[in-house]
Amino acid sequence: MASTSADLQGEGDWLVGNPSGGQLASALWIGSVGLLILGLQPVLLGALYTEGHVSGDELALVATAEMIAIAIGSAIVAMLLSAHNMRWKSAVLLLLLALANVWTAYAAGAHTLMAARALAGLAEGGLVAVATELIARSRRAERIGGYFVTMQTLAQCALALVLALYVIPAAGSAGGFLVLAVVCVASLVVAFAVPADYADLPKDENLANVLTVPSITALLSVFCYFMFFGAVWAFLEPLGAQFGIDGRTVGLIVSASLAAQVLGAMTATVFEARIDYRLAIAAIGLAALVASLVLASGPGLTMFWVVALIMGFILLFIVPYQIRLAITADETRTAVLLVPAAQLFGLAIGPVAASLLIDGKEFRPVPEFAAASAVASVALLGLFVLAARRRRAIA
C-alpha cells in the first residue's frame, strides 16, 4: 500500500490506499497486542500484590502509570510521526514491549516496576496507533473499530484464562510477564504483514482540526464515559466485599464481564450502521448511570452480577459509535486518532479521582462518582450536537 498524499479518493471501502484483508487483520492484531494488558491487569497485577512485590497503593500507581503511558504513546505515534515504514515501526515497538515485559518479570521494588510498566505503556500505545491509523483511513471505520475491539477482547480472554489456570500458579507473576514477552516476539511475523506505508490522510492542519468545540466536546465525552468504567472496574472487588460478596465470586464476575465485553463488541459490529450514534451514546450513558446508582445502593449478589454484566456489555458496544462521533466532529479524521488516548486517559484518571472520595472502607462514593461521569459524558454529547448544528448553520 504505497503512500500517496494526492490520492484522497482511495478504492472501495478506503478513503486513501487499498490494504488487503490480510494486511488489515495484521494491523488490528498488532494493535491488539498493545492492549492485551487491559484484560490481564487484574490477573498480573493481582499476582504482584499477592506475592508482596507491591502494596495496594503502589499497585494503583503502577496500573495508572501504564494506562497514562499507553495514552501518551498512542497520541505521539498518531499525531507526530508519519505513517510510513509501519512494518519496521511495528517490529521495533514489539521488541521494546518484549524487553519491558522481561524487565517487569525481574524488577525489584515498586519504583522499578512503575518504570518498567511506563516503558511498556509507551510501546503499547505505539502499537495501538498502528491499528487506529489504518482504521481512520476506512470509510467503514466504525465497523472495523468493532472488529478491533472484538479481536483484542477475545485475545485478552484467552490469555487471561491460560495465565490464571496454568502459568501464574506454576511460575507466578514473572511467568505471566514472560509469556507476554513471548507473544510480542511471536507477533514479529505478523508485523511484516502490516502495510509498509499507509497512504497519507489530509493532516496539514494537525491540531487545528482538534482544537475546535465539536472535536473537544466529542473527545471529552469519550473521556468521561471511560472514567465511569475505570472508576468502578478498579474498585469492583472492595465494593463487592462491602456488600458481603467474597473475592472468589467477584473474580468469577470479572471473568463473566470480560465475556460480556466480547458480546458487546460483536453486537456493535452488527448494529453499528442501524443505530444513530447520538441515540446509541445517550442510551448507553443512561444505562451507565443506572448501573452506577444500583451499585451505590448496596445491591445483593444477583443485582451485582447483573450490573457487572451490563457494564461489560456496554463498555465495548459504545466504541464504534464513539468513532463515528469523532469522525463527525472532524472530517479530516485527526480527532479519531485521539479516541484511544481519550479512552485510556479516562480509564487511568477514573480510579485516581474516585479514590479521593473514599473514606476508610466506605466505597459507595466510587459508583456515585461513576454516575456523575456518565452524566457528564451525555451532557458533553449534547454540547457537541449543539456545536455541530451551529457549525453547519454558519457554513
From TrEMBL:
Entry annotated with the keyword Transmembrane helix: yes
Subcellular location: Cell membrane
Membrane topology: Multi-pass membrane protein
Any one GO molecular function term: transmembrane transporter activity
Keywords of this entry: Cell membrane, Membrane, Transmembrane, Transmembrane helix
GO cellular-component term (any): plasma membrane
Entry's transmembrane regions: 27-49, 61-83, 90-108, 147-168, 174-195, 207-236, 248-270, 277-296, 302-323, 335-357, 369-388
Pfam families: MFS_1 (PF07690)
Predominant location category: membrane
InterPro entries, sorted: MFS, MFS_Efflux_Transporters, MFS_trans_sf
Record's signal peptide: none
Record PANTHER family: CHLORAMPHENICOL EFFLUX PUMP RV0191 (PTHR43124:SF3), PURINE EFFLUX PUMP PBUE (PTHR43124)
Protein name per the record: Arabinose efflux permease family protein
